Each structure stands twice: as structure tokens, then as C-alpha cells.
Amino acid sequence: MGCRKKTGDVQLQCDTRCRILASLFPLVAFALQWFFWAAIQPYAWFLFYPAIFFSSWLGGQHYGLVATALSTIMVWWFFIPERYSFVLERPASALSIAIFAGMGVLFSLTHERLRKANQQTAAALAAVKAAKDHLEEQISERTTDLRSTIDALWHSEADLRKAQEIAKIGSWTYDMSGRILWSDMLYRIYGVSPETFTPNVKSFLNLIHPDDRQAMKTWIDDCSANKKPGELEFRTIWPDGTLHFFSGRGELTCDADGRPTHISGTAQDITERKQADIALQKLNYDLEKHVAQRTEELEESRSELEMQNEELRITYNELEVETAARLRAMEELRENEQILIQQNRMAAMGEMFGNIAHQWRQPLNVVGLTIQRLGLSHELGEFNKELLDDSIKKTMDIILHLSQTIDDFMNLSIPDIVKSQFSVDQLIAKTVSLIEDSFKEQQISIDIETIDNARINSYPNEYAQVLLNILMNARDALLEQGTKHALVRVRSWADDGRAVVTITDNGGGIREDIMAKIFDPFFTTKELGKGIGVGLFMSKTIIEKNMGGRLTVRNVSRGAEFRIEV
Fold first, then answer.
1. 169 bridge partner residues
2. DSSP strand E in 164-281: where?
3. Splitting the chain (566 residues) into consecutive groups of 10 residues, what average pLDDT does each group show?
4. Domain region containing 553
5. What are all long-range contacts of 288-293, with beta carbons under 8 Å and residues at least 24 apart?
6. How far apart are CA 434 and CA 416, in angstroms?
7. Apex CA 175: angle with CA 172 and CA 178, to 5°?
8. 336, 357, 387 — which closes off a domain?
9. Are residues 321 and 445 in the same domain?
10. Intra-chain end-to-end CA distance of the chain, in Å
């Protein structure tokens, strides 16, 4: 509590000094211009543009507006003809006053928005750090729990195998993609080996007795349609030609949205029971002579069957509990992935602040030169309405560009909730515009080639986050290698209904020994403090899990190529 109070006092003192300094900028500009007016004239606003810029930057909106008003009055009275009067001799003077006041208001509003954005970012980063600390604590706890769960599952699996061996019961899972998984016991009771037999619908039906195949097909279709067909008895022919009897059960499992995910079931070898039934039918002819003996045998068989049924029920319950635990673990994994996506997004946002500040320098210089051009044209007698209209248009275009930069940055920082149609080419251009100046400053060229103007229905902001992650990764690789004539090439086109984007650099490529690991969570080759290794992992998660696409990487002639297909 004491540290927080001390930090608050230091911040208050800093804010007070900034506001005092913000108030002094117009006065310092006035003093300098008064002293050097003979050399500066007729550029009446030369020192006051920086003054109101830094006043609004340090003092915020209120001090920026006050500095604008004070600077306007001082320049109008002391430096614009007729001096020491608020009478204007030239129309251009009125225009320069209006533009200066407009830019002062724009500086004040823009710096206020940036100040609030910085405050929100600081709060968000603090929340992310707290969430990260909490997540690490949870991961540690859950890792311990997971070890215990794995040990318990291992023992449960061993018990299950033993129970299946005793009861001659095998288990299977059939997912909707056509893949079939068999337990070891199922291979044994069907008389095949996992090394030589690949389970699928066709190969399984070949094991079934020809007279029972149609009934088995119908039973599988009923399970897939969730008609709950119940138990099915069928026969198989082993490779050695012997006939075996089985009892099968299956049940369809659906996800939370009611979509079928897989069918799970069991098969029990009931050959001995069937053989006993056949033998019983034969012995019925001699029932009167052997009734006592056969009654005892039947009682023994009944007890054995009851025990087998009880073991089967226990096995099924254990499988049901295990399935529920795995579903819970998958849900927790999805939640953790969303937290990592947000952390990666916030880290990228912090780096983007520097890019935006760099992008604004050149447009602001152009605005200043445009205003100076108006005054000089008037002095030279070249001022006309066409020049005025052209200057106003250029200035407004730059103002709209600066505003659009803020809007693009804010949109990128907001996660998508629902899917929407968007142009991949336009999203590439918008994303590159946020980092282009930063790349140029680091002597990295960006070449964009777009074909077909592909459109997809997905999450545009998450897609832009993936583009940004890969571009930043390419930049880091180029800077680390010190590549001369560094180049990042971005290409996009449509291919069979899918939008394909490739991002290629000439940074020397990825070492073969780490190629298979770069999409793993927390894997990084960067120095400590320059990344935690979740950017590419989150990018692959967004593209493949959230959007149903593919994200791959390969080495090309002079570097690495990332390929996005959605």
C-alpha cells in the first residue's frame, strides 16, 4: 500500500511538471520568434506549430487548446500585418489563422486520444500480467493434478485390459471421418494382428460371415443415425477358417451443439456360450436321463454370465468417466488457448504504438510545408483559389489518413465475436500499412502481389493478427541475420475456393533441426526478453482451429515461406 501511494505521488509530481512545461511552450516560442523575427519573417507560425504540438503532448487536451488560443492571439497581434492590431491586411492571413487553430485542435484531440489509449493499454498490460501470473500458478497446480490423473489413468487402463482379457471383450471407437481405433483385446478375439491388419469399415466387414454382413451394415447405419439399435449378435471367420460368435454394442456421442463426433462400443466373444447352446440343444433328446447333471452345468454357466455382465457394466462405467474427464481437459485447453491469443494480441499492440508514432511524422511535416507554401505564394503574388483548394484538399486528406490510422489500430485490437465477409487483399494492405514505415526505417522492403481479390467468411481481426505475427517474425529473422537488401514478399491468390497467402523472406531460412518445433507453444530461438514463443503457436491455432484452414512453413531458395490457406 505504501509503494502504491509513493508511486502515485511521483506520478502527480510528474504530471504537474509536464503541465507547467506545456504552459511555457507558447511563451518560449514567442520569445524566440520575437528575438529572431528579422531572420524568420514572414513565417509567423514557424515556431508555434511545434509549441502547440508539444503543449498538447505534455499537457493533454485542455493545455493544448489553451496553448492554441494563446499562440493564435500572440501571432495575430505581434507578427501578422497590420502588427499590434487584430485587423487583417490579407485574406491568406485569415486562412493561416484558421489552419493553425484547426491543427491545434487536431493536435489536442489526437494527443488526448493517445493518452487515453496509453492508459487503457497500461491497464490492459497490468491485467495481462496478473492473468499470466495466475495462469502460471494454475498451470503448475494442474500439472501436478495431471500427473496424478495420468497415473490413475495408467492403472485404470491396465485394469481395463485385464478385465477385457478375462471377459473376452474388446472396445472400439469409430469417428465420423472414418477412422477406427481398436483395443488390443479386440484384435485378439477377431483373430488378427495389429501389425498385419488395418481396421476400417471395409476390412472389418470382410471378417464378418457373408450371411451377417448386411445386418452389420444396417446396425452401423442405425448407430450413426442415433437410432440406438442395441445389441447385435454376429459371426466372424478367422484366418484359420474357424467360426466365432460375437455380441456387439455401440452408442453415438455428440458434442455440445448436437453434432455427432464418434461411435464407441464393445464386442464380446460369445463363441463358448453359443457352443454351449448348441450342445444343450443336442442334449435335449437325452434330457430325462441327464437332467440333474445339465441343471448343475446351467447354473454354473448362469453364474459365469452374471459375473461377465457385471464386469462389463463396471468397464463401461469406467470408460464413461474417462471420456468425461478428457472432454473437461479439452475445454480447459481451449480456454487457455484464448488467454494466450489475447496475451499475444496485447504484446503486438504495444509494439504497434511505435510504428504509428513513426508514421505520423511525415504527414505532419507535409501539413507544415503546405501551410508555409500558402504564405510564400501570397508573398510572391502567386496565391489563387486553385492553390488554396489544392492545399485544403491535401491537408484534409492527411488529417483523414491520420484518423484512419487510429481507427485501423483500434479495430485490430478488438477481438472478433462473429464471422464476417472480408477481402483478404484489403486486409493485407491495411495490416502492412501499420508497419510499413517501421520496416523502411530498418531497411526492410515489403513487396505485395495480390491476385483474384479473394474473399472469405471468417474473423478478420484474428486473420490480421496472424499476418502481423508472421511479418514481425520475418523482420526479427532478417535483423538477426543482418541480411543485406532485406526483403519480405507477400502474395495472395484464390485456389479452388480457398484464399492462399504466402509470406516469404530472404533471411536464410529455418534450421532443419527446429523446423518441426516452431509451431510448438513456448518454443523460441530469440534471446531472453524478446519473445516467449507463442506467436506462431497462436497463429496456427487461429488458422487451423478457429478458421478451419492450414498454416505451414517451408524453406525456399534464400529464406523461409509461411503459407496460409483458409
1. 268
2. 169-175, 180-182, 232-237, 243-254, 260-269
3. 49 69 84 85 84 84 85 84 70 80 85 82 83 82 77 64 71 82 89 89 89 91 85 90 90 85 89 85 78 79 80 74 65 59 54 55 66 76 80 74 58 67 94 88 94 91 92 91 93 94 94 89 67 79 93 94 97
4. 416-566
5. none
6. 19
7. 100
8. 336
9. no
10. 51
